[in-house]
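Reminder: ligand-aware prediction takes two inputs, not one.
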Amino acid sequence: MNAYAENRLSDGSKKDLRELFRIDEADIDVMFDKGSNDIYSTRLWDKNGKNAYSVKLNSIKDTYGDPYCILMVFSDITEELELADKYVVANKAKSQFLANMSHEIRTPINGIMGMDTMLIEELDDGNTEDVRQYAVNIGDASRTLLSIINDILDISKIESGKMELVPVEYELFSVLNDCCNMTLSRAAEKGLRFETEIDRNIPSVLYGDEVRIRQIINNFLSNAVKYTETGRVILRLRELSRHGGSSQLEIEVEDTGKGIKDEDRDKLFDNFTRLDEEKNRNIEGTGLGLSLTQKLVYLMGGEIAVKSEYGKGSVFSVRFSQRIVNSEPMGDFSDRYRRYAEQKRENTVQIDIPDARILVVDDVEMNLQVVKGMLKRTRAVIDTAGSGKECLEKIAAVRYDIIFLDHMMPGMDGIETFEQIKHTSHPNTDTPVIILTANAIVGAKEMYMEKGFTDYLSKPILRNDLIAMLCRYLPEPAVNDKAVTAPPAEEGAVSPPETKAAAADNNNGIAERFPFLDTKLGITYCMDDEEFYVEMIETYLNGDKRQLITEAYEAWNLKDYGTYVHALKSTSLNIGAAELSEHAKALELAAKNGDAEYIKAHHSDVLREYSTLLEQIKAAV
Ligand code: ADP
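Here is what comes back for the chain with adenosine-5'-diphosphate:
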């Protein structure tokens, strides 16, 4: 043993192979036997299993050709083996990624190709309305595709050291405003609340790579919405310190979603890696977002962190510094956002359609009132029906220009009613039927379209969406008469996110009058019309569903039970009773899955919560 080997392997006292390596007698015999005639190679681990050696041995022979000594050469290959392991893991991730990616890329391409075929057919038939919709779908699919490809390009650019930041002067408000707009509509689609807590003293104009900062915030926000089924998402922005003309900022996104397992935490930022694949199978994603975010943050000299509890939720945060251009405080974000949204709302389309005749079908009186209220200014004639049966009676007698039909109704539900509409004779065979639903789950729209509905509107309904439906589907004579007084609002022009701190301001004492409700949320669903909101609260009180829910529970009729708690979910959210809405949602889900245990464990609690709320409302009105 040379000095180096002695130093490495032992203190010099141990010279026997069996004391130094993990090897037994039989292996030693084989080694020496084979090594005396030929060069023999093997691999050995040291006694504590830490280092691996590639071993080559061969005999040295005397002038008569007899072996007189065996020469052994040890090369430490620990690092090489580790690299090889890493390579195998990386390769596996890459194959997994390619499989996912092919799927993610193929989906929009299929969409584009299918739409293109239909477009050409419709062009031949001169059906312009369908053509428009196909073109919109092509646009959506292309944007999805582009964003996947951009992510891949960004990552490879960073990895090859070619990515450069492009700093510009920018207004932080405008960045946050855009991020919030995008998130609000996505969160609303899933029935999630979206809140902001933004430090009002943050300098209004900064210098940095605005595009990348937007990308980072949007990535966090879109993940938070994607991986959260119930509850809320909060965007926080704080200034941690200020020195040398720069501001150290912290952006945080908190959700009440699936959370991340401890053992998965390390893999979170790896390229192409998605976690909990089994559970997240139906959620679109490529596993590139966070790895790109991390790389961008590092490029900006910042830090990224994540706190998470599996099943409860996660908090993703970044810290980075930006040069200050104008230190004047940005001010109250929520206020500014509201003013901006109001300005947008003024530009919202107003239509005047006195000749249009509309039928709205819903078993919940409050929902009928919401739609009526939203359409009051259009001067359209609005009929209502409280059940599928009543709907069939009405359409047998009157011709409507459009029918809005609720899905979840006791007795005959929206789909059954629609089947009857299709198979009976009446003057409404060509009338567009829009399904109203609070089932904002992925794939729901496709399911309804397959059944033959003209379109789909998710609840709680936003006025702009409702008007957009009318513009799209009202037939020619009504459309000709309608006076469009302003261009349609841009997509995403929804009401402001809630600011926790500013819950009580600016709504004429309504927040004080109904402190147990999230009045801001409720008012949002009532077109920001406070009077209408109070009317809705009263309707909610009068539409007491306790008896119906209890009867369905006692008769263990899960279909009706599901329908009633479903109505409780959407009407509660409509008036800003978000928590009760969520509890009702959980019961609805349990009813759907036949989860008797959950229903039995929570039924009385939810009813008690509902009773308390009704009592509180009674006292307040
Ligand atoms: P993806 O395109 O899959 O969303 P990301 O890189 O953005 O890719 O995220 C990687 C993985 O981290 C996701 O697949 C998901 O499993 C997990 N993840 C990211 N954000 C969250 C979150 N807010 N809550 C729970 N899991 C998350």
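The longest strand covers residues 313-329. Residues 55 and 74 are 5 Å apart (CA to CA). We will return to this case in the review session.
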